[in-house]
């Protein structure tokens, strides 16, 4: 039996460069895993099964089961596992929970079943499940390009703490709707992401003006009511507020844990919101490209 943590992510930058002929978009993004995580447990079994307290997540469409079936297809078959998923990452929140769960499944079942597939092969398989899955096979800090499946790992970004707020907004086909709402005026060259990548590689800090998310400009139209959360965080002292991925979660980097704790407590107890202070999570075995 093996239990692993599947960490959430935040996008320090997220630029959309152009639409692609395959229906996706070319992006450039600096991305960071954080200390919010799901827990997955894997045990040998005769067949594949997934247990979760949330019945909506026990369906065959869950990326955990899709990842497990994909490994069966690309091995000698006959493999099984009983998988238990304990969710803590909010669902469909822009924090990458499903993709992180899928990556954890690929890594853990590769070990459990003794498949000995290389990380490069797992990344190829992961890319067929979702654009963020290859990144989560690494974790830590990285620069993503292509449709998000191309990963260049980075040294740790110089931001230790974040306050994350996850509003309970339900938007059908959220990611597709967000990308459809982008116009040509929202497209950028990826230069800001490349500048931040170079700065992180050089050991520099991460100035607030380097943080960027293309969806920030259309966030209030995508998520009616989000403006209240955004403006409240600013009013309580957050200098920078940005969407996490395509939202609706938002986050603010904080310089000190004490500052973040005060902001989290105000948001949770004064406003009753799902707010969390979380550290950056650095992959212990990350190898920088």
Can you put this structure into words, describing what you see?
The protein folds into two domains: 153 residues, 2-Layer Sandwich (Ribosomal Protein S5, domain 2); 119 residues, GHMP kinase, C-terminal domain (Alpha-Beta Plaits). It has nine helices and eleven strands. Strands 1, 2, 3, 4, 5, 6 and 8 form a seven-stranded mixed beta sheet that branches. Strands 9-10-7-11 form a four-stranded antiparallel beta sheet, covered by helices on one side. The protein is globular and about 55 Å long.
Mind sketching the topology for me?
Elements: E1 2-19, E2 25-44, E3 48-52, H1 63-73, E4 81-86, H2 97-112, H3 119-129, H4 133-136, E5 141-145, E6 150-154, E7 161-165, H5 174-180, H6 191-201, E8 212-213, H7 219-222, H8 226-235, E9 242-243, E10 250-254, H9 257-270, E11 275-279
Parallel strand pairs: 1-8, 3-4
Antiparallel strand pairs: 1-2, 2-4, 2-5, 5-6, 7-10, 7-11, 9-10
Which CATH C-level class of the largest domain is it? Alpha Beta
The CATH architecture of the largest domain would be 2-Layer Sandwich
Terminal CA distance:
32 Å
Q: Count up the helices.
A: 9
Main structural class = alpha+beta
Rough outline: globular
* Number of discrete domains: 2
Total number of strands: 11
Fill in the CATH topology of the largest domain.
Ribosomal Protein S5, domain 2
Low-confidence segments:
none
Percent strand equals: 25-35%
Residue-averaged pLDDT, rounded? 94
Helix and strand sequence: EEEHEHHHEEEHHEHHEEHE
For the sheet with most strands, the description reads:
7 strands, mixed
* Structural Rg: 19 Å
Helical coverage, percent range: 25-40%
